[in-house]
Amino acid sequence: MTDLSERIGERFEKMSRDEIAEFQSEALQTSVAQAAKSPWFAAKFKEMGLEPGDIKSRDDVVKLPFTTKNDLRLSYPAQMLAVDPTEVIRMHTSSGTTGKPTAIFHTRQDVSNWAELMARSLYIAGARPNDVFQNMSGYGLFTGGLGLHYGAERLGMWVIPAGPGNTARQITLIRDFHVTVVHATPSYAMHVAERMIAEGDDPKSLGIKIAALGAEPYTEEMRFKLQDLYGFKAMNSYGLSEMNGPGVAFECPYQNGMHLWEDSYIVEIINPQTLRPVPEGEIGELVLTTLRRAAMPIMRYRTRDLTRLITEKCPCGRQHVRIARFVGRSDDMLIIRGVNVFPSQIEEVLMRHKWLGGNYIIILTKAAALDQMTIKVEISRDGFDGTVETLRKLRGDLQRQLKEQIGFTANVEVVEPGSLPASEGKAKRVIDERTAG
Ligand code: AMP
Ligand code: ZN
Predict the structure, then answer these.
(1) Radius of gyration of the chain, Cα coordinates, nearest whole angstrom
(2) β-strand pairing of 132-135 with 158-160
(3) Contact 345, 414 (CB under 8 A)
C-alpha cells in the first residue's frame, strides 16, 4: 500500500489549502530561478528589469511575463531549454497542424513527475492497479500516448498500448483482455460505439468501467450520451503539451469539474482582452505556470482555453481547485453574422436528441455577403423509426432549438450514419469556407 501511495504521489494529492499555498510559494521561487537559466527567460526578465529574487511568494506570479504560443514558436527550437542538453531525455510537440510545431523538453525527473501526475489523475478517477487499461491515443510526438502510458504503468495497471484507429482490433483487445479502463478522445469513443451498433453489437457488452476522455472539447450532453451507450463513467481529462500533456487536471468520481494539480501548476483565470484576473468564479482564459519542471519551465502560459474556477469544497475531500468543463477556446470562437458562437453551444443542442448520433460538422459559407451556417449531423441507428415524418419533425425541432441557443437560423441536414468523416484523434468539427473565395 505504501508503494502505491508513493507511485501516485498521495502526499501531494492530499494537500490542504495551506499546504498548497506554502508549497507553491517555495516552488515558484525555484521555478523562476530555473527559468532564468534559459536564454529566452533570461532575456525576458532582463528586459523587464526583473530579478528572480523579486519573486518571494505565490502571489508574485503576477509580476512574471505571460508566455504565448507565439513565444514558443519564436523560441523554437530550444531557446526555452533551461538545462544542459545532455540532461534531456524526451521531447514532445503540440498537435497543432499549422505553422511550426512547438517543442517541449523533459529531464528524467520531469518525465517521472509527469508520470506521477498522470497516475494520480487516473487514481482519483477510480482506476486501480488491478485494472486493465487500453490507451487509444496516438503514440509519438502527441502527448496522449506516452503520457497516459507512463501514468498507467506507474499506477500499476496492465497496459495495452493500442494506439489510435483499427476499430475492429480495439474491440477485440477490449473483449479478450477484459479491459476495464480506456483512454480516447470523446469523438473516437463515439465512433467505436456507433460502429458496434451498426454491426448489431452492444457497447455495454464490453464491460468498460471507466473512460478517460479528453484532448478535445466536448459537452456534458456528449458525456451523458457516451455513458448511456457504454455504461461506463466518462471522466473528463485535461492537459496540453506545453504543460507536459495529459495529467494537468482530472475529474474525481463526483464528476463536477476537474481537480487541477496545484503542486505542479499555478492557476490564474484572466480576461483575454485586459489580461487582468476575472472576478472569482467567472469565465476567462486559463493561465498556467509550471512549478516542477526543470528542462523547460514556462511562466504564465496563456492556454486560450476558456473555463472558470470552482472553489467550493469537493465532496471527495481533495482540496486542489477545480476547473469547469471548457466552454471553448478564445481562438475557436466563431463570429457568425456578428454573433459570438462556440461550437460547444451547438453540440449541446444536438446531443440532447436521442435520434441523433455523436458525429456532426459545422460548415460556414457566405451567400450574398451574409454568413450561412449548415450543420450536418448523423442520425443514430438506435431508436430511429426511419420515417420521413420523424425526420421532418427532427429538423424543425433542431432549427428552433438552435435559434434559441445562438440567435439565428441554421440549415440543418440530418445524414446517414457513418457518412461524415470519422475521427481517430481530435475531431475537426468546423469547416469555414467564408474566406476561401
Ligand atoms: P495538445 O497540446 O496538442 O495536446 O492540445 C491541448 C489542447 O487540447 C488544450 O489546450 C485544449 O484546447 C484541448 N483539450 C485537451 N483536453 C481537453 C478537455 N478535456 N476539454 C476541452 N479541451 C481539451
Ligand atoms: Zn473531487
Answers:
(1) 22
(2) parallel
(3) no
> Rounded to an integer, what distance in angstroms lies between the CA atom of residue 413 and that of residue 394?
10
pTM above 0.85, yes or no: yes
pLDDT tens per residue across all 437 residues of the chain: 569 999 999 999 999 999 999 999 999 999 999 999 999 999 999 999 999 999 999 999 999 999 999 899 899 999 999 999 999 999 999 866 556 788 999 999 999 999 999 999 999 999 999 999 999 999 999 999 999 999 999 999 999 999 999 999 999 999 999 999 999 999 999 999 999 999 999 999 999 999 999 999 999 999 999 999 999 999 999 999 999 999 999 999 999 999 999 999 999 999 999 999 999 999 999 999 999 999 999 999 999 999 999 999 999 999 999 999 999 888 888 888 878 888 998 999 999 988 898 899 999 998 878 899 999 999 987 767 778 888 899 999 999 999 998 888 899 999 988 899 988 888 889 999 987 54
Ligand 2: centre distance to CA 166 (Å): 35
All three cell numbers of 42, joined, read 533570461
Q: How far apart are the CA of 251 and the centre of ligand 2, in A?
A: 7
**CA 69 to centroid of ligand 1, rounded, Å:** 14
Question: CA 436 to CA 51: how far, in whole Å?
Answer: 48
* Cα 296 to averaged position of ligand 2 atoms, centre (Å): 29
Residues 417, 421, 426: CA angle, nearest 5 degrees: 120
Q: How far apart are CA 337 and CA 366, in angstroms?
A: 10
Query: What is the helix (H) or strand (E) element at residue 375, kind and residue range?
Result: strand 370-379
Q: CB-based contacts of 424: which residues, under 8 Å, 6+ apart?
A: 138, 164, 165, 185, 188, 191
Instruction: Indicate if ligand 1 lies below 6 Å from the C-beta of 236.
Output: yes
Closest atom of ligand 1 to CA, residue 329: 12
Asked whether 143 lines ligand 1 (CB < 6 A), one says yes
- Would you say the CB of residue 217 lies under 6 angstroms from ligand 1? yes
What residues are neighbours of ligand 2 (ion), with CB under 5 Å?
A: 252, 314, 316, 318
Out of 68, 102, 142, 238, mutate this one to test ligand 1's pocket (max ligand atoms within 8 Å of CB): namely 238
Domains and CATH numbers, the chain: 1-331 (3.40.50.12780), 334-432 (3.30.300.30)
